[in-house]
Every structure is written in structure tokens, then in C-alpha cells.
Design brief:
This protein is of the alpha+beta class. It is 51% helix and 19% strand. The protein has helices at 19-26, 49-52, 111-116, 171-182, 194-202, 224-248, 252-271, 279-294, 298-307, 314-319, 322-333, 338-346, 348-362, 372-378, 382-400, 409-429, 435-468, 474-499, and strands at residues 2-10, 29-44, 56-62, 65-71, 75-77, 80-90, 119-134, 140-152, 155-168, 188-189. It has an 8-stranded antiparallel beta barrel. The longest helix is centred in the C-terminal third of the chain and has 34 residues, at 435-468. The chain is globular and about 80 Å long.
Length: 506
């Protein structure tokens, strides 16, 4: 058995000719292997039993020689892929999984039944160029460049990938090479394997953006340190997924999900502050704040799009106000273009942020400056930590939102940051509690959060009207005020009901 430890990058045709030179700059020695034309087929049952177990079964043929490969469930952190892999030679392009040792399979797996029902799901065919390099520190790294295509159900998707795999030596050298490569620009870390992409193509299940950020899966017996790893890894994957979704189909709401993922990582640093002390995350926080600043126009852009959508009541009001419509069109024209955003996601700074977060997780970077207090905190049961965190958030909400006080629009607008933090704590730690009870408690607060966002949509348009200072816009301003008042009344009902609910963590 081998365990792959590799980083994957996606690149365009413009970067391909530059790769050999970058490798030569980095390596002490380089061995250039002959290019190969690899023909691969991926197999599963009609019910996708292997896929359900996160097992990949592939045959690969080159120069009339074939082998079969099993990849078992592993771990993906950022762009770093670590999976157990087993290879056996075969005489035909059809696999024989009964030839593998029985002890590699998950307990209870029906090997014979699965073997009888295997058939090819999709194929990947590509030209592979390979370089074996040795670093100054003596590590050996294999660099492979794959150019070709995935074919499934008559559909085709291009492959243009660069993979670097640690063969021998220090994992740190793999990350150093990765940093060197992304300094080129035009490369970005790849989250999804060829197999994952092939299954989506074969099953006609394209990658779709989430409507909202989900709940991190945690073992209720986990330690605080384990929960930190799970939360940050969830955030990295959430960002990378929606980065890819944006390339597939550009959307402002998809960019908002990228923002959500970064905010979850930042919140995890705050939530686990007893472990993650000061200097360990200062640089990471600075870079995440840089990325958020690059995307700080997105929410206003979503507001502007709402105003000009024929599905919304705003459209008719604004369309009859020429000066306001002209201003909105001018603001939309100033927004970054799709190409600008793609350039951001290809930029060395953005990819170095994801790479540094990945390395920080893999190398447990928070341990570098640990005090005895941090060591003790890391071993605390996460359930104990979660209860204390939720109680703190709840007491703060009750203090800022006393039951007897009537809130107005400005009160709710000022509440957003506090409520977002409380909800993010639930995203990070809520899986430790009963799902139905948790959702019942959180739903009204999520509704209030959506209400605050709608109030911001109204407030932004009102500000634009006030900037115009035209008498004909007074009617729109009055309409906006009435909508805000009606919305606040509904939010007040939700708030009062929620304040009397029994918290799910008690």
C-alpha cells in the first residue's frame, strides 16, 4: 500500500509552457520522464456502492500494459490530498477486485456481489508529463502535468492539472515547491479529483453552490483541538467549492458563499482562542481580512441587482425614477468584472492564503507557541467548550435585546454583527446537539438575520434616494420606510417568541 501525499493545481494553457522552467528553478536535480498517453476507466455498480464508501476503482492502460487501482477514503485538507492506494497489474482492461487482499476493505463490504455488478462509469484520457525532482534538503517529489479530458454519457470536460506528490523526505518541501509554483500566477489549488468530476458528469449532477453555510460535523466526544481542525477544514473546503462554482457559473451569491467560508474560519479562530494564541494566526487573519476587503462590494452589488430584477417590487418603483435608475446603472458598471474575480482567484496572494491555511492545519501551526494553558485547553471535551460559548452568546443577545424593549430599524441594523457571531457558533458546534431541537431554536433567529439583510437592502436604496435629493424620490423613500416598519414588526414577533424558547444546548 502507498499513501498519496499530494497537492493538486488547476492551470490554463498559458501556464503549461512555463512549468518546466519553474521546476528547474526550484530543484537541485530534475529527471524528465517520457510523456505517456494514459487511458483510464472508472468502475462502480449501478447503485454507486463504491462511491458511497468513498472508494475509487480505476483501470489504467499504457503501451499495452494495464493495472488496476483502489483508492480508499482518505483526507483532503485544502489542496492536500492523502489517500491509501493499492495497485495490481491486470491482463485485461476489466478490473478484478477479488485479487486485492481482503483486509483492505471496510468491514461488512460485500466484495463478491460488488464485483459481479461492476461496469465502467466514465473514462479519463490524457497525456502525462512527469518530472522527478530532488530538493536541496534531499526530498524527492514527483511533478506530473496532465492534459486531456473526462468523458461520460457523451459529455466531455477538459483536464488541465498539475500534481506534486511527495515520494520521499520532508512534507515541508512539498509546500515550498507549491509556493514557488503559485508565485507564477494563473494556478489555483484544486479540491476535486478526476474521479469526483467524472462521477458528477456521469450522473448529471453538476457542482452547485450552497444556499447557506452548513453545520460542521463533530464527534461529541472530540477534544477542542479536534473541533478546531474540523471547523477550519470545513471553511477551507467551503471556500474552494464556491470558488469552483464561480468558474462554472459566475454569480454574486456564489461570491457571498466564499465570504461566508472565510468568516467561518475567522470565527473558529475566535471561538478556539485558548488554543489559537496571538502570533499563531496574526498573519492568517491579516490575509483573510485582505480577501474580505477585495470582496466587500459584493453585498451592495446583490442589493443593486435586487433593485433591477423584474421579480422584485423595487423594479417598478425605480424604473419610473430615471435619475435613480441611472445612478444604480452607474454603480453596477463600477463593479469588478467576471474576469477581475477570476484573476483574483488565480492570484498568488489568494492561493498562498489557501495554501498557508492548509499547511497550518496539516502541521498544527497553532502548537508552535503553545503555553501550558493552551495545552490543557486543547484537551478539553468540545461539548463543555460549546456549552460555555453558547451561553456567552445567549447572555449577550438577551442583554442587547431585552424582552421589554421595542426595537426599531436602526437597532436591528446594529445587531447584525452580534447575531452573525452567535449563528456562526452554531454552525461550528451545533452538530453536538439534537438536530431537530437545534433547528427549532435557530430557525427564528435565522429568519431575523434574513430580516436584517432585507433591512440593509431597504436602507441602501434609501441612502441612494437621499443622495439624489430630488422631490420625486420622496414617494419611494416613504414606501421604503413603510416596508421597513412592516418588516420590523414581523421580526419583533419572532424575537419575542425566540427569547422565551429553551436553548438547545441546555
Amino acid at each position: 500500500m502507498d499513501t498519496e501525499i499530494e497537492l493538486k493545481f488547476l492551470l490554463s494553457d498559458n501556464e503549461v509552457p512555463l512549468i518546466p522552467g519553474l521546476i528547474m528553478q526550484f530543484a537541485k536535480t530534475v529527471k524528465n520522464k517520457p510523456a505517456k498517453n494514459l487511458k483510464n476507466a472508472y468502475f462502480d455498480t449501478p447503485n454507486r456502492e463504491l462511491r458511497a464508501l468513498d472508494i475509487g476503482l480505476r483501470t489504467r492502460c499504457c503501451d499495452e500494459q494495464c493495472e488496476q487501482t483502489i483508492k480508499l477514503a482518505g483526507q483532503v485538507v485544502g489542496g492536500l490530498h492523502q489517500r491509501p492506494e493499492y495497485n495490481l497489474p491486470i491482463d485485461t482492461p476489466r478490473p478484478n477486485i477479488l485479487a486485492f487482499k481482503q483486509d483492505i476493505w471496510p468491514h461488512g463490504m460485500q466484495i463478491t456481489a460488488i464485483s459481479d455488478n461492476l461496469f465502467p462509469i466514465f473514462s479519463t484520457n490524457f497525456i502525462r508529463r512527469t518530472w522527478l525532482i530532488e530538493t536541496e534538503q534531499g526530498s524527492k517529489i514527483e511533478v506530473v502535468l496532465d492534459k486531456g479530458e473526462i468523458v461520460a454519457q457523451g459529455q466531455v470536460e477538459a483536464i488541465s492539472e498539475l500534481e506534486i506528490e511527495l515520494v520521499e523526505g520532508q512534507r515541508s518541501d512539498l509546500f515550498l515547491l507549491a509556493e514557488h509554483l503559485i508565485s507564477l500566477g494563473g494556478l489555483r489549488l484544486g479540491l476535486y479529483s478526476k474521479a469526483a468530476r467524472g462521477y458528477r458528469l456521469a450522473d448529471d449532477k453538476p457542482l452547485k453552490p450552497n444556499k447557506y453555510i452548513g453545520v460542521v460535523k463533530l464527534n461529541r466526544h472530540a477534544t477542542q483541538e479536534h473541533a478546531l481542525v474540523q471547523c477550519v477544514n470545513y471553511g477551507i473546503e467551503f471556500v474552494q467549492k464556491h470558488e469552483q462554482c464561480y468558474f462554472n457559473k459566475p454569480s454574486l451569491k456564489t461570491l457571498k458563499r466564499v465570504i461566508d467560508g472565510i468568516n467561518l474560519i475567522k470565527h473558529a479562530f475566535k471561538l478556539f482562542e485558548p488554543i489559537v494564541e496571538g502570533n499563531a494566526t496574526e498573519r492568517l487573519l491579516s490575509e483573510m481580512n485582505w480577501l474580505l476587503s477585495e470582496l466587500d462590494w459584493v453585498e451592495d452589488a446583490i442589493h443593486l441587482k435586487t433593485y433591477t430584477s423584474k421579480r422584485h417590487a423595487y423594479y417598478k418603483k425605480i424604473n419610473n425614477a430615471v435619475e435613480l435608475a441611472t445612478l444604480i446603472d452607474a454603480l453596477k458598471a463600477e463593479q469588478p468584472s467576471i474576469t477581475d474575480i477570476e484573476d483574483l482567484f488565480h492570484s498568488p496572494r489568494y492561493n498562498k492564503l489557501l495554501l498557508t491555511l492548509t499547511r497550518w492545519l496539516v502541521d498544527k501551526g497553532w502548537r508552535q507557541e503553545w503555553s501550558q494553558h493552551a495545552v490543557s485547553a486543547a484537551e478539553l471535551p468540545i461539548k463543555e467548550v460549546a456549552t460555555a460559548a453558547f451561553e456567552k452568546d445567549w447572555q449577550k443577545l438577551q442583554s442587547d435585546l431585552p424582552e421589554g424593549k421595542d426595537l426599531c430599524t436602526q437597532d436591528y441594523l446594529a445587531l447584525r454583527s452580534l447575531l452573525d457571531c452567535a449563528l456562526l457558533s452554531g454552525n461550528c458546534l451545533g452538530s453536538l446537539y439534537d438536530k431537530d431541537t437545534r433547528q427549532s431554536f435557530r430557525t427564528p433567529w435565522i429568519d431575523i438575520a434574513y430580516g436584517i439583510y432585507e433591512l440593509e437592502t431597504l436602507a441602501y436604496l434609501k441612502t441612494l434616494c437621499e443622495q439624489q435629493n430630488l422631490p420625486e424620490l420622496e414617494e419611494i423613500e416613504l414606501w421604503l420606510s413603510k416596508k421597513a416598519d412592516f418588516l420590523v414588526q414581523a421580526m419583533e414577533q419572532s424575537r419575542r417568541a425566540s427569547l422565551n424558547s429553551m436553548p438547545y444546548w441546555r
